[in-house]
Specification:
This protein is mostly helical and 200 residues long. It has one domain (3-188): Four Helix Bundle (Hemerythrin (Met), subunit A) (Up-down Bundle). The chain is built from nine helices and no strands. Helix 1 (3-24) runs parallel beside helix 8, helix 7 packs antiparallel against helix 8 (150-178) and helix 8 packs across helix 9. The longest helix is centred in the C-terminal third of the chain and has 29 residues, at 150-178. The mean pLDDT is 87.
């Protein structure tokens, strides 16, 4: 990959980070809720999925073909594959602890409620006993399990930058939403890596 390829791919990820973060903000919700109403959460998730898919597709079609492969041993490649599948497993396991209708926006559509997602209770059980953001943990594993060439490395780097910044914004949102309950939870449970053992 050339420096131009790196810059284009970084800008694509920047576009996702900026748009995704803005759409999750209260100012965007206030502006767009009158237009989308109960469909806001569903449309937000759909647009985000299409946006990140477009980044991967454009990257694969126009950038990945110029990427130099890393010559890892078979055992290292095997470990990376395990890490990638572990990431998928962690994300799927974490999702089971949410109301998926609420999480995906279908519940809001069915019930005709605009801000139903704001009423969701704070998750303290399951994987959240060990880390505050288990879906992000799975995403990190998935991204870094794909570092088999330059394109995979760039994807892992920019995806991780997005997750890191996204975690910071998510923390602010959760403190505003749950107040002291989340602050106390935050003091006991690590953000991404379960290095303290079970805390709740």
């Amino acid at each position: 990959m050339t420096n131009t390829d790196y810059a284009i791919y970084a800008l694509l990820w920047l576009s996702f980070g900026l748009v995704h973060s803005w759409l999750a903000s209260h100012s965007a919700k206030r502006l767009l809720n009158p237009i989308f109403g109960p469909a806001y959460r569903f449309c937000y998730n759909l647009f985000s999925a299409l946006h990140v898919a477009a980044i991967f597709i454009v990257g694969q079609l126009y950038l990945a073909e110029h990427a130099e492969s890393f010559h890892f041993s078979g055992s290292v490649e095997g470990l990376l594959l395990v890490l990638r599948f572990l990431g998928i497993a962690v994300m799927l396991a974490a999702l089971t602890q949410y109301d998926l209708g609420l999480f995906g926006g279908l519940a809001q559509l069915r019930q005709g409620i605009r801000a139903l997602d704001e009423t969701e209770t704070l998750h303290l059980g399951g994987m959240h006993r060990y880390v505050r953001h288990p879906i992000y943990l799975g995403a990190y594993c998935f991204l870094w399990g794909g570092v088999l060439d330059e394109f995979g490395l760039q994807t892992a780097i920019w995806g991780s930058v997005y997750l890191f910044i996204g975690t910071w914004f998510e923390e602010r949102k959760l403190i505003a939403q749950y107040g002291q309950s989340y602050i106390e939870y935050r003091q006991k449970v690590p953000s991404i890596l379960p290095f303290r053992g079970r805390a709740i």
